[in-house]
């Protein structure tokens, strides 16, 4: 579960002493329950990426609190957050963020290696996950030798390999054509239904927003609307 309470954040730009403060998030509060898909929409500049970066622990909030699975993460230091992230969170990005010099297999097994799991031990799990995303036949391909949809599946496999209870996604279909987009959305729904994975997804795209059990709208850094689509 993700619990966000009175979260506020701003950025300072410009030279020291003459900074301009850009308020981005203002008293944002909402929850994402276990097993839910929550989508966050809002115009460009409304603070969606900032919110996701705060939940991901890539930046710390100026005010307010973030709890993930009962742990207060908003005040954790970087080292602690890095350990927490690998146990609790998976990530899917618009730009896939694959390592170009590694094969699909090597990209997928990477989190296991970072976690200190021996190569031999991780082999079964890596093969299982590649099978699950339908990429067993492509495991020796480099990202440059795969289609956009296949690359996104590699990135999902990499997110799934450590069994994260929560996946955070930033415009997951932003680089895909509409047919591949639909396949990917169906796959996210399947992961949610069959494995109970909780998703928090930010998007511009109505089709993506619609897979949310709930859609939250950010407007000028505030939550202005929660549209309940269907029950989780
Ligand atoms: N590191 C930063 N330094 C200064 N200002 C920033 C920084 N990151 C974001 N901002 C500002 O914060 C505001 C919100 O940005 P954010 O990227 O969160 O919006 P967004 O809703 O994700 O937009 P988009 O849909 O275009 O990606 C913008 O005005 C942006 O210029």
UniProtKB/TrEMBL annotation:
CDD domains in alphabetical order: ABC_MJ0796_LolCDE_FtsE
GO molecular function: ATP binding
SMART domains: AAA
Annotated keywords: ATP-binding, Nucleotide-binding, Transport
PROSITE patterns reported in the protein's UniProt record: ABC_TRANSPORTER_1, ABC_TRANSPORTER_2
Domain of life according to the entry: Bacteria
All copies of domain ABC transporter, residue ranges: 2-232
SUPFAM superfamilies assigned to the protein according to its UniProt record, in alphabetical order: P-loop containing nucleoside triphosphate hydrolases
Nucleotide-binding keyword on record: yes
InterPro entries membership: AAA+_ATPase (IPR003593), ABC_transporter-like_ATP-bd (IPR003439), ABC_transporter-like_CS (IPR017871), ABC_transpr_LolD-like (IPR015854), MacB-like_ATP-bd (IPR017911), P-loop_NTPase (IPR027417)
Stored PANTHER family: ABC TRANSPORTER ATP-BINDING PROTEIN YTRE, IMPORT ATP-BINDING PROTEIN
Protein's recorded name: ABC transporter ATP-binding protein
Species this protein is from: Mesobacillus jeotgali
């Amino acid at each position: 579960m993700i619990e966000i309470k009175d979260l506020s954040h701003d950025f300072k730009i410009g030279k020291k002493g003459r900074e301009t403060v850009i308020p981005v998030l203002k008293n944002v509060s909402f929850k994402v329950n276990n097993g839910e898909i929550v989508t966050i929409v809002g115009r460009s500049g409304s603070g969606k990426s900032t919110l996701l970066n705060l939940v991901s622990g890539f930046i710390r909030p100026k005010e307010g609190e973030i709890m993930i699975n009962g742990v207060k993460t908003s005040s954790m230091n970087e080292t602690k957050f890095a350990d927490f992230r690998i146990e609790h969170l998976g990530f899917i990005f618009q730009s896939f963020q694959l390592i170009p010099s590694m094969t699909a297999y090597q990209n997928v097994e990477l989190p296991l290696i970072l976690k200190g799991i021996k190569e031999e031990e991780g082999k079964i799990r890596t093969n299982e996950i590649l099978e699950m995303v339908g990429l067993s036949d492509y495991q020796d391909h480099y990202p440059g030798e795969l289609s956009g949809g296949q690359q996104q599946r590699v990135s999902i496999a990499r997110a799934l390999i450590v069994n994260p209870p929560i996946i955070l996604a930033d415009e997951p279909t932003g680089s895909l054509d509409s047919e591949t987009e639909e396949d990917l959305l169906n796959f996210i729904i399947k992961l949610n239904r069959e494995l109970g994975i909780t998703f928090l997804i930010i998007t511009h795209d109505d089709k993506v927003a619609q897979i949310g059990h709930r859609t939250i709208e950010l407007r000028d850094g505030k939550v202005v609307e929660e549209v309940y689509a269907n029950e989780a």
